[in-house]
Design goal:
350 residues; three-stranded antiparallel beta sheet; 66% helix; 3 strands; mainly alpha
């Protein structure tokens, strides 16, 4: 990929589809560990991996691709007694996003160590002795490539634009997370209401006709609440939220890359200036400096693609969140009807 090559989300998505799923059975006695089924559509493989094997792959890629936006892994936590289901699911989803970004990257997707991780039953990954710049050999400039000064200007500009994009996407995610949480809380409240109404609807030998009618109404409302408040997020809603998180991961990785490069590029320029202008050392430093800028331009384009895809999916996310809240609102209305007219419960359900 040259720094003039455009990339689209559809092209990245077509590179591979990664799934990471928890292995149901956990091994160990006291300190239990989780295992994951890792599947790659591109390679047609499914392997079993532990979190530490993800760490090994990350360490290899971080050393081999210092000028690429390699995302950080989700944090490790000692899983005592199996860990909370919510923590395990969130880490599983985060590992899937991390591996997806790697497996769809225009350069890292073709990495031999990634292929070993995705295909080999017992992967053996050794940290490389050289980085991508050395392994790539002599870099021939394309006549259509930007000049070093143009790449430097683009690097500075993209940093600021994607910084603002990252802040905006993060704010959107936090808002949607709160909206989703409120919907889940309402479902939980309705379940509790159903349980309370169910307890109150127990018949008594001392019931009068009026008590019986009220108990019938509470019973009908309780059954309705307990039956219809268990629905989870729609698949579309989950996918839209994951797309937003994928963009946050991608843009966040780019921002961390920029921080590293800003420090490293200054050091490379200073070293090149201090060396004899025509020396081999100075030429190598200038070449590395230019290579780093070229990578930064390419990584900015990739991050921008993920950000754009997340923004394009906002209407679907708004629709699914709105639908979820509308269903909760309709359930409250149905509960009102069931309490007033208990024998119309079937009509409410229909």
């Amino acid at each position: 990929m040259t720094n003039n090559t455009e990339v689209t989300f559809e092209e990245l998505e077509a590179t591979d589809v990664i799934s990471v799923d928890l292995v149901p059975e956990r091994k160990g006695l006291i300190l239990k560990h989780c295992e994951y089924y890792v599947s790659s559509r591109r390679h047609g493989t499914t392997v079993t991996r532990r979190y530490n094997e993800f760490v090994q792959l990350y360490d290899v890629l971080y050393v081999k691709y210092p000028y690429r936006a390699v995302c950080s892994l989700p944090p490790k936590r000692v899983v005592v007694g199996g860990g909370s289901p919510l923590f395990l699911q969130r880490r599983r989803a985060a590992l899937q996003r991390w591996l997806t970004l790697v497996a769809r990257h225009p350069v890292m997707a073709h990495d031999a160590d990634l292929r070993i991780f995705l295909c080999e039953t017992t992967p053996k990954l050794d940290k490389p002795k050289h980085d991508e710049f050395i392994l790539a050999g002599t870099q021939e400039d394309n006549p259509t490539d930007m000049s070093t000064d143009e790449m430097q200007e683009s690097f500075v500009s993209e940093q600021e634009q994607l910084r603002l994009a990252h802040l905006g996407l993060d704010r959107l995610f936090k808002i949607f997370e709160k909206v989703e949480s409120r919907c889940d809380s309402e479902r939980s409240d309705i379940r509790e209401l159903g349980a309370a109404l169910n307890a109150l609807s127990a018949p008594s030998v001392a019931d009068t006709a009026k008590w019986t009618r009220i108990r019938d109404a509470m019973k009908a409302a309780a059954e309705l609440a307990l039956e219809t408040s268990e629905s989870q997020l729609e698949v579309g809603e989950q996918e839209a939220m994951e797309g937003l998180l994928l963009a946050l991961d991608a843009v966040g990785a780019y921002r961390r890359l920029c921080s590293r490069l800003t420090r490293g590029l200054h050091a490379e320029r200073a070293a090149a200036a201090a060396a004899a202008p025509r020396s081999a050392a100075a030429r190598a430093l200038r070449a590395r400096h230019r290579y780093a800028l070229r990578c930064a331009v390419e990584e900015a384009r990739i991050a921008r693609v993920y950000a754009l895809s997340a923004l394009e999916n906002l209407p679907e996310l708004l629709r699914t969140l709105g639908t979820a809240h509308a269903r909760v609102a309709a359930l409250w209305a149905d509960l009102h009807t069931a309490l007033r007219h208990p024998h119309s419960k079937q009509a409410v359900k229909d």
